[in-house]
Prior knowledge:
By secondary structure, this protein is an alpha/beta fold. It has a single domain, classed as NagB/RpiA/CoA transferase-like (Rossmann fold, 3-Layer(aba) Sandwich). The protein has helices at 5-18, 21-37, 39-43, 60-68, 142-147; strands at 46-48, 72-79, 84-90, 98-100, 106-108, 121-124, 128-130, 135-136, 155-160, 165-166, 181-184. The strands form three sheets. The protein has a six-stranded mixed sheet with strand order 3-2-1-6-9-11. It is globular and about 45 Å long.
Amino acid sequence: MVLTKENLRKLMLEKLEKQREELRKKRSLSIKDKLFRLKVFKEAKTILFYLALKPEVQTRTMIEEALKLGKKIAVPACDIKAKEIKPCLLRTLENRHLKEGACGISEPFLIRPIDPAKIDLCIVPGLAFDLSGNRLGRGLGYYDRFLSRLPESAHKIGLAFKFQVLKRLPFCLPHDVRVDKVLFA
């Protein structure tokens, strides 16, 4: 079988779905510990996190602890018509402050946009990453368009489970935006 982007997406989605819940939680906490030890995390004032779908590296604990540390937290709100991510401030993870957005992804009920230029650190989801920081997303291009709008000084860190990190992704395109680092467990 020839490996295509769609085949790899399907394979990774299957592996993510099959992962046991307790293992997902344990690995997510290990990744959180790695993130919180990084100098770029400690120095960041404004961080964009993604609100994880069930099979992804879970970010809820990361967000809660970062808020307690006094970090400004932004999360994506998807503008489907414009096909873009709008970063919005998040003050709490209480369910009454969140709603279901595009693709079933939670987003703030009250949209408080933040200028992407103010983001110091961007935490990026992906279906697969490679050792050079290339990323395979879900195929809609939202994150590539968003990441290209961040200032050069903003650090981009991908979060993944070990099976999502490959030696090389063979089908990277010029418009694909790499992450600076991939944290995995």
